[in-house]
Every structure is written in C-alpha cells, then in structure tokens.
Amino acid sequence: MSTATVDDHHDEHPGFFKRWITTTNHKDIGTLYLLFSLLMFFVGGAMAMVIRAELYIPGLQWVEPGFFNSMTTMHALIMIFGAVMPAFTGLANWLIPMMVGGCDMALPRLNNWSFWILPFAFTMLLSTLFMPGGAPAGGWTMYPPLVLQTGNAFPFVIFSIHLMGISSIMGSINVVATILNMRAPGMTLLKMPLFVWTWLITAYLLIATMPVLAGAVTMLLTDKYFATSFFSAAGGGDPVMFQHIFWFFGHPEVYILILPAFGIVSHIIPTFARKPLFGYSSMVYATASIAFLSFIVWAHHMFTVGMPLVGELFFMFSTMLIAVPTGVKVFNWIATMWRGSMTFETPMLFAVGFVIMFTLGGFSGLMLAIAPADFQYHDTYFVVAHFHYVLVPGAVFAIMAAGYFWLPKWTGHMYNETLGKWHFWLSTIFVNLTFFPMHFVGLAGMPRRIPDYSLQFTEFNTMASIGSFGFGLSQLLFAFIVFQTIRGGKKATDQVWEGAEGLEWTLPSPPPAHTFDVPPVIK
Amino acid sequence: MSSHGENSYYIPHGSYWPIFMSVSLTTLLVGFSLLLNEVPVGQIMMFVGLAMTLFFMFQWFRTVVLESEHGTYNEQVDLSFRWGMFWFIFSEVMFFAAFFGALYYARILSVPWIGGAGSELTTNTQLWAGFESMWPTNGPAELGGDYKIMGAWGLPAINTALLLTSGVTLTIAHHGLLENHRKPLIWGLVATILLGVLFMACQALEYYEAYAHLNLKLSTGVYGSTFFMLTGFHGMHVTIGAIMLTVILFRVLRGHFTPEQHFGFEAVAWYWHFVDVVWLGLFIFVYWL
Ligand code: HEM
Ligand SMILES: [Cu+2]
After folding, report:
1. Which terminal CB of chain B, N or C, has fewer other CB atoms within 10 Å?
2. How far apart are CA A240 and CA A248, in angstroms?
3. SS3 state at A279
4. Do A212 and B223 touch (CB under 8 A)?
5. CA A460/CA A384 separation, integer angstroms
6. What is the nearest CA distance from B285 to chain A, expressed in angstroms?
7. Cα angle: A230, vertex A375, A451; to 5 degrees
8. Interval between CA A247 and ligand 2 midpoint (Å)
C-alpha cells in the first residue's frame, strides 16, 4: 500500500447498499454522480431520438404534437440538470480534493445529501410523463402564460426544480468551502489547477442564480394555485417579467454548463502538447470576467419580446463583450499547442474537437447577439444549432474527454484506445451531421419546438435525423468502453500520461479511498 | 479517523440522515403536489412528510452537535462550517432578490407600461384603456376589488423597532459569550427570542387586519402578490430563526459553547442579522416608499 493510505484498515466495509447510500467519501460520491449523469444522458438522449424520429420527414408520423412538445421540454431539463450539471459535479468531487491536496470535500455529509436528492428529484420529474395532462410541454424555459396550462404535472415539475436547486446549491457550497479551506500548504490561489479555478467560479454562479430560479418557479406556482398576479397584466404584473427573472438565472446557467469544460480542456491540452498551459493567469482572469459579464447580458434571449431601445442596445453590446474573454481562452489553447510535441490520444482528440466546435458555437452566438439579426434568427433552428454546438461538442465532449483522461487514474486501468478513437470519430461526424444542417434550416426560417415543417426543409432535417441516430448509437460505445475499463484492462501507471502534471497524478492508480490525509507540501 | 490525532480533519463515517432527509422532503413535496391537484391523500402525506423532515433535521443536527461537543472538530472544520453558512446565507439573499426584483419590475416598469408610459401608449389605449399607472395597484382588472393599503407607521414601524432591538440584544448575548459572562448571554438570548416571537405575533395581527378589514389579500393584484410573498417568506425566515435561537438557548443552558468555539451560536446570529436586514429592505420598499 502506498504512503497515502494512512489507515484504511480502520474503515468499515459496509455492504453494497449501505456503502453507496451512506457514503461520505468524495470518490464514491463522485462515482455516483457520474453514473447518474450517464444514465440521465441516455434517458434524455432517448427523448431526443423521439424528436428526431418525428422530424425525419414532414407531416405528423409517430407522436401527438402535445407529446412532441413534452419531449423537447423534458429532453432539455434532463440534459441540463440531469446529465451535464451532475457530470461536472461528479468530476468536481473526484478531482478537486486530489488536485488541491485535501483529504476530502469540506462537508462530507452534506456532499452525500447533494447527490441523494437527485434520484428523487428526477423520479418526480419523470413521473409526470404518466400524469393526466402529460409531462410539461411549454419548453424548458417555462414561460407563462403557456406553462400555466400544464396539467397535474405542474406542481411536480416545480418542486422537482426546487429539489435540483437545493442539490446544486449545497453541492456548490461544498465546492467553495473545499477550495477555500482544504488546500494543501503552499497551494496559493494562483497555483490552483484551472479545473479548480473554473469550478470555484461556477460554484459562485450556481449559488447566486439557482435561488433566483427557485424564486421564479415559486411565482409560477403561486400564480397558478394561489391567485397571485406576478405574470398577469390584468393584475399589474407582466409575463415578460418572468422572462427577465428566468434569464437572469438562465444566462449564468449556460456558463455553469461550460466553465468547468474550459477547465478540463485546460488540463488536457497541455498534457498532450507536453507544454505548460499558455497564459495561466489570463485564463483565470478571463474566466472571472466571463462570470461577471454573464450577469449583465440576460436579455439577449429576449430581443424580440419588446424592450426599450436602450435595452436592446445595452444587451447587444454587453453580449458581444463576452466574446473578448472567450477569445482569450481559445487563443491560449491554440498557443499551448503551438510548437508542442503533440500526440492525439482520445482525450486530446475530444479536447481539440472541443476547441474547434465550441468556437463554431461561439460564432453563431455572436451572430445571435446582433439584436436586429436576432429578430430573424430568434426561435428558429439557428438558435438550436447554436446552443447544441456549445453544449454537445462543447460541454459534453469536454466531459467525455475528462472521462477518458482521468478514468485510468480512477480505475487503475487503461481504456481501449482503438475503441476510444472510434468513439471520437463517430461522435464528431454524427454530431456535425446532426447540428450543422440546422444552421441552414434555421436561417431559412424553420421554427423550433414544432413537430412539423414545410417541405423545403425536408433534406436537411432528414440528414439531421440520421446524424442524431448515429450519434445516439455511438454513445452506446462510450458506455461500453467505460464499463470495460472499470472491469479491467491494461494496468495504468501512476502518472498515466507522459506529460501529465498535477497532484492527482502523484497518487497511485487507482487511488486508495482516503488520499492526502497528510497534506502534501507544494513548493 | 480516530488514529489521526488531535489535529486531523474529521471525515464522518457513513450517515443515513441525508437519504432520510431526501425521502422526507420528497414525501412532503409529492404530498403538496397531490394536494394542489385535489387528491385527498395529499394533505396527510404532506403533513407526514413535514413531520419526517423536521424529525430528521433534528436528528441530523443533533449528531453534529454531539460530535462538536465531543471535540471532534478542529479549527479547519470550524472554518468549513463558516464558509458553508456564509454562502448559504448568500443564496438566501439571492432568493429574496428575485422577489425584490419582481417588486421593482412591477413598480418601475410593468405598471407604468400598462398605463401607457414610454413607447407603450397603444398597450394602454388598445388593451387596458382607462387604466392610470399608480402604486400600489391591483392592476387594470382591479383583481380582488377595492382594498386599502398597509401603512408603514403602524404595526410595521413597531415591527422594525422590535427586530432592530433584537439585533442589539443578540449582540449583547454574543459579547456575554465572548467574555464568558453567562447572565448577559442567557438573558440576551431570551430577550432576542421574545422579541422575535412578538414580531411574529404583530405580523400575524397585521395579516389578520389585512384580510379582515383592508380587503388586502394575496389575490389583490401585483401589490397583494408582492406584499404577501415578500413578507410571508420573511416571516417564515423569522420563524426558522427563532426556532434556531431557541435551540441555541437550550444548548447554552446545557453548557455548550466556549468563548473560543461557538460556531453554532455565530451561525444563528448571522442568520438573524440577515433576516433583520431583509426586513429593513421590506420596510423601506414594501411599506414605506
Ligand atoms: C460567445 C458566446 C455566446 C454568445 C454571444 C451567445 C449568444 C446567445 C444568444 C444571443 C442567444 C439567444 C438566441 C435567441 O433565442 O434568439 C443564445 C441562446 C442560447 N445559448 Fe448562447 N451564446 C454564447 C455562448 C453560449 C454558451 C457557452 C452556451 C452553453 C454552454 C450557450 C447556450 C445557449 C442556449 C442553451 C441558448 C438557448 C436557450 C433557449 O432559448 O432555450 N451559449 N446564445
Ligand atoms: Cu445567454
């Protein structure tokens, strides 16, 4: 046993259920989060398949329009709150204590609770599929007055969002406390690995905005059941007010979905370019400015709703400003690769794919930021193309890159490189086949969230549907590779990757349950 | 990790409290949802869930208190708790910010727009003809009918005095604790709790007045909505704060806390001051201006 295992023999060895239900160990909790996220990724993915099957050709084929709308709504809620966010939290749990040289998360019992809220919250949300009136169908943005027409599902949706919010807030409090208080001596703030930095800022965004979402959905609930009129003009309120409150949460939320991905990529690229990250401190400052700006751009989602002209202008220019720190980041990643001795193992492939395709999504974002142009693009498939580029080959690719990158550390086994490369190339081809054509139909005016479309959009939609089925199937390969690696494979060394640097690589692979009980000293 | 010696960070062993909390909360919320859908079992389920939630919260906190009293926590753990509480209160601030934002939006933007301000003339002439912008309002449809507003200088002013005084008495108690004087500590806490209870009583009376004599209800348009939701959530926080203070009082009577280590006390004190500050916001923006 290594020196890092101080007294494993003191630990109880509880049975399977007791272990996973009551665990306070950051590695176990990280594993729970990651597996839960993988499960939700397939649940949400199945819903996406329903959407794309319906849109394969024009006309109504497979599902009722109402159910189609439920699918778009539930797909988004599950992917955002069930797949991407828990995946990042799982990575945070596994990695942050090891990266800062702490013995665990700062508040271990609370950490367990943050995870164990989620299965209940999503059972509640998914149960609405079987309720009179169906699952929510007004879109994940839940705009009133439309969303107030939801049937019996309504309170279940609202409360499941409250639960997810509690989980996120508690999880984030834990992350902040861990980063601020559990660092090894000598690990000053500006020595922290970038994944830690990006998560610190993400956690701050979560603590600041999830309560606002909670407030917004609470107002929806009281408007529907307790006769308040926050969002009803007849009583002096305004449905547009909901949109403001929602997007005050919603835009920082999209950065919550991408900042940890920035952190991940900032670890992987230097490792495989065998060069230190270019511009570490500018990365930190860029992340912080993105977070700050994310609070003052929200109404770019509302250009067409009717805002005073100064509002349109303010939100247009502030949104464009975000491109500056984002550009700094992309520049730094490229500069890191410049003249590096690069190799392209699977994590690196995903990371490079991230840089290219995320940037594409950023460009379409800039187009959308131009208020007069957005009058044309808003609520079309162009927006769908934009956010899927930043979220799928963006956030999701980064999560998968992280999976391949750290899985050998976590399990002690190397994954199958050939299959990993297959997974990357299949995913990349199909993701572009799915989402690239959406730019064209969007610019030509195809609206989003409608189960049917005009004939001239047929070819591109058929392409997108084929791409999505291919993408969905390719992810089965991912699940296979992950489970294969958990069960066995070539033994991984402690450092795993030749160019890997950071405290987690000094630990054995797999690391024992308790690591850094005695904090390492950082020079 | 007993063998790590005095100064190691305490990692609790497996715990069932979190999963019990999740089950309880889910019972509570599913019960409430069923109630809202007018399913009869909903009400019972909701109260059972509430009882379970309170019970397990009590048990969880009890475990933590006992651990603390056994000296399990070192200074670093204490600091983790402090950061935890600080960010928790920040999240609460943001929750209230959503409702203050709604109040601001209605007063400064949506009500004037319905009245035709700015470029919204046609909103007024075409949709809500005859409506004149003013505050407070129950909207162009005059939801809830004629009502009277809640003035600032009656009960609300008294409530302000009560809460501000309670902030002072709590500080006296805190100083008592720091200087190891039990008398100011205990009586300061008792006074704070009593002032809190008195505040809640006044608030209850005010709600009664509003419903019985002013015809001011939750359904009184956007004024009623913001008024009751803001003061209601605040009142809920005062109630929780008073309960927490009572727990602290009992702990003090049992000899818990030392001048050096008393995170539990300070956490509740921070919370109470936070509730105080929210009230000042309410008094100024909901009642006064
Ligand atoms: C350069 C950076 C970005 C800019 C300028 C930008 C701009 C925009 C704009 C203007 C819209 C509204 C379009 C409309 O509804 O008409 C939008 C929508 C959206 N963006 Fe971005 N964006 C950027 C980055 C991101 C990132 C990093 C993410 C997430 C990882 C993201 C996720 C989304 C989502 C989910 C929507 C659609 C929300 C909905 O209506 O359902 N964006 N973006
Ligand atoms: Cu946005």
Report:
1. C
2. 12
3. coil
4. no
5. 14
6. 17
7. 80
8. 7
Nearest CA in chain A to B91: A207
The verdict on pTM exceeding 0.80 is: yes
pLDDT at B2 over 60: no
* Minimum CA–CA partner of A249 in chain B: B98
Q: How far apart are CA A220 and CA A249, in angstroms?
A: 15
**Test the B interface: residue of A8, A20, A21, A181 with most B CBs within 10 Å:** A181
Could B1 and A237 be called an inter-chain contact, meaning their C-beta atoms sit closer than 8 Å? no
Q: What's the A470 CA to ligand 1 centre distance in angstroms?
A: 25
- Rounded alpha-carbon distances, angstroms, from residue B84 to A175, A220, B249: 10, 29, 22
Q: How open is the CA angle A133-A135-A137, to the nearest 5 degrees?
A: 95
Spatial distance between the Cα atoms of B214 and B226, rounded to a whole number of angstroms: 16
Residue A254 token pair: 């999209």
Contact A103, A517 (CB under 8 A): yes
**Contact list, B4 vs chain A (CB under 8 Å):** 6-7, 517
Domains of chain A: 20-506 (1.20.210.10)
Instruction: Identify the active-site residue in A26, A52, A162, A300.
Output: A300
Whether residue A487 lies in the annotated active site: no
Q: Which residues pair with A413 in a beta bridge?
A: A491
- Residue by residue, DSSP assigns A445-472 as TPBSS-S---GGGHHHHHHHHHHHHHHH
Provide the token pair at A374.
Answer: 């957005």
- What residues contact residue A363 under an 8 Å CB cut-off, 6+ apart? none
What does the block give as tokens for B20? 């019990």
Q: Distance of alpha carbon B86 from its chain centroid, rounded?
A: 15
Q: How many Å apart are CA B264 and CA B268, to the nearest integer?
A: 6
Half-sphere exposure of B57 (CA within 13 A, CB side): 12
Question: What structural domains and CATH numbers belong to chain B?
Answer: 14-72 (1.10.287.70), 74-288 (1.20.120.80)
- Dihedral, CA atoms, B29, B30, B32, B37, nearest 10 degrees? 150
| Atom 7 in ligand 1: residue holding the nearest Cα | A365
Residue-wise DSSP of A84-138: IHHHHHHHHHHHHHHHHT-SS-SSHHHHHHHHHHHHHHHHHHHHGGGSTT-S--S
Q: How many residues does chain B have?
A: 289
Read off φ and ψ for residue B73, nearest 5 degrees.
-95, 130
CA of A248 to the centre of ligand 2 (A): 9
CA separation for the pair A272, A348 (Å, rounded): 6
What pairs with residue A380 in β-bridges?
Answer: A447
Q: DSSP string of B69-115? A: HTT---HHHHHHHHHHHHHHHHHHHHHHHHHHHHHHIIIIIIHHHHT
pLDDT of residue A7: 42
ipTM for the predicted complex comes to 0.95
Q: A491 pairs with which residues across the strands? A: A413
Q: pLDDT tens, A69-105? A: 999 999 999 999 999 999 999 999 999 999 999 999 9
Note which residues in 189-248 of chain B have CB less than 8 A from chain A. Answer: 217-219, 221-226, 228-229
- A407-445 pLDDT per residue, tens: 999 999 999 999 999 999 999 999 999 999 999 999 999
**Matching residue, tokens 């609460």:** B92
Token pair belonging to A81 = 């709150």
For residue A173, the one-letter residue type is I
- Are A108 and A27 spatial neighbours (Cβ–Cβ below 8 Å)? no
User: A447 pairs with which residues across the strands?
Assistant: A380
Q: What is the dihedral of CA B29, B30, B31, B33, to 10 degrees?
A: 90
A222's tokens: 């009281």
